[in-house]
RNA sequence: ACGCCAGUAGCUCAAUUGGCAGAGCAGCGGAUUCCAAAUCCGCAGGUUGAGUGUUCGAGUCACUCCUGGCGUGCCA
């Protein structure tokens, strides 16, 4: 147990999405849909297009503004309400960069050196990746703590970064003798269907960087494309769907497709198998395609409508930035006091 | 900062004395299959890092620049 006074502020969720490349089904089921569910459940949510993170790796300045709007459009199209939640662009709110610098002086080199994502992305080229990429998790901590967010919906791959955020929060509180100043943010556990795999390889996560476009369903795909991709999705040699969950053992591609069906329908995997167990993919795949299309089509349509009206997106983002600033500015002010910066 | 080596398709690499830029893998399409996979058949993929020069002709030779790797020095 700890005798340190714990954080006592309100619960808040923070999450961010990088404006790089196209959004796909994995992003939707793994992130966007959960944001909307959290909103519906009454959580105060702060959702951010993290363009500061996007520039840690080479990018095209000519494309970034529209990529940023596209993520925002997706957030709004999926049902995030700009009044109920806060939807904005990271670089529009100064608190992120400012707090990140301060956290740079709280975090320790050794903490960051252990980050596996950095090792993965940098790989053997670690000499020529940007310092920003190395520092990425610190900025992430700043993102979360600038709003004193208490919960972060994350996938397994982000657990390690969240751990770092907790370490930074704890160390800041202790170093500046400010018990409970920052919360130690917790992960919100993902439900089933969180991890969407490639349609061509059940052992790989669905990814925007996969060379095959058939491996993923993009949020901008039209109905025919979605149906075609599901039809061409890899299955296996066993033929039929199993009757029970145990039967999915060792069949990652089938498990993935069933998982997607389950996520869309809201049914448990068991229930899906009760319905389709013993059936061939010739019957399951069209059903899955129909289900996916019926859920995605309205979103895609709304997204297109937003993209056709960038000014509308910009208005929402402007408002979001003001809300975000209103929350974070007082936190930053307190931080400056705690640290001992000169105040104007 | 200097020296050496390298840069060719998304990736790994070929291309003889200067003589039509190619292969494997990956990708896409078709056949096949309840759907896929595998297998066959086919398609596409390029400013040869950028530029200048020599030449009838440059991936190849010369020069300049860019990028990366290795080595040495400098800051100390």
Shape: globular
CATH topology of the largest domain: Rossmann fold
The assigned CATH architecture of the largest domain is 3-Layer(aba) Sandwich
- Radius of gyration over alpha carbons? 21 Å
The CATH class of the largest domain is identified as: Alpha Beta
- Range of helix content: 40-55%
Count of distinct structural domains = 2
Distance between the termini: 40 Å
Q: Which structural class do you get from the secondary structure elements?
A: mainly alpha
Tell me the total number of β-strands.
Answer: 5
pLDDT < 50 stretches: none
Proportion of strand residues = 5-15%
**How many helix segments?**
13
In CATH terms, the superfamily of the largest domain is HUPs
Order of helices and strands: EHEHHEHHHHEHEHHHHH
The order of strands across the largest sheet is 1-2-3
- Quick one: biggest sheet? 3 strands, parallel
Integer average pLDDT: 91
Report on this model:
This protein has 344 residues and is mostly helical. The chain folds into two domains: 12-194 and 310-339, 3-Layer(aba) Sandwich (Rossmann fold), CATH 3.40.50; 213-304, Tyrosyl-Transfer RNA Synthetase. Helix content is 51%, strand content 6%. It is built from 13 helices and five strands. Helix 1 (25-40) links the parallel strand 1 and strand 2 (45-49). The longest helix is centred in the C-terminal third of the chain and has 30 residues, at 310-339. The structure holds one RNA strand of 76 nucleotides.
């Amino acid at each position: 147990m700890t005798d340190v006074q714990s954080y006592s502020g309100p619960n808040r969720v923070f999450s961010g999405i990088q404006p790089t490349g196209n959004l796909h089904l994995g992003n939707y089921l793994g992130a966007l849909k959960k944001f909307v569910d959290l909103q519906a459940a009454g959580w105060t949510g702060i959702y951010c297009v993290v363009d500061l993170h996007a520039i840690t790796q080479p990018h095209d300045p000519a494309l970034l503004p529209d990529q940023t709007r596209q993520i925002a459009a997706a957030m709004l199209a999926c049902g995030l309400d700009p009044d109920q939640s806060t939807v904005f662009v990271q670089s529009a709110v100064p608190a992120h960069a400012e707090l990140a610098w301060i956290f740079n002086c709280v975090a320790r080199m050794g903490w960051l050196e252990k980050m596996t994502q950095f090792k993965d992305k940098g790989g053997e080229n670690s000499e020529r990746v940007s310092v920003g990429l190395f520092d990425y998790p610190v900025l992430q901590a700043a993102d979360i703590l600038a709003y004193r967010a208490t919960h972060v919906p994350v996938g397994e791959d982000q657990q390690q970064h969240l751990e770092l955020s907790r370490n930074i929060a704890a160390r800041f509180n202790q170093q500046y003798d400010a018990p409970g100043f920052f919360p130690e943010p917790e992960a919100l556990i993902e439900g089933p269907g969180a991890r969407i795999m490639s349609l061509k390889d059940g052992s790989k996560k669905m990814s925007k960087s996969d060379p095959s476009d058939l491996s993923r369903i993009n949020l901008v795909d039209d109905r025919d494309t979605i149906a075609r991709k599901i039809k061409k999705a890899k299955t296996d040699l066993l033929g039929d769907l199993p009757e029970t969950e145990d039967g999915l053992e060792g069949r990652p591609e089938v498990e993935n497709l069933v998982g997607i069906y389950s996520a869309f329908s809201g049914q448990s995997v068991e229930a899906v198998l009760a319905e389709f167990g013993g059936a061939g993919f010739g019957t399951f795949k069209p059903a899955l395609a129909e289900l996916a299309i019926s859920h995605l089509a309205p979103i895609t349509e709304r997204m297109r409508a937003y993209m056709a009206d960038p000014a509308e997106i910009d208005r929402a983002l402007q408002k979001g930035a003001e809300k975000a600033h209103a929350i974070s500015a007082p936190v930053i002010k307190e931080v400056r006091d705690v640290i001992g910066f000169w105040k104007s």
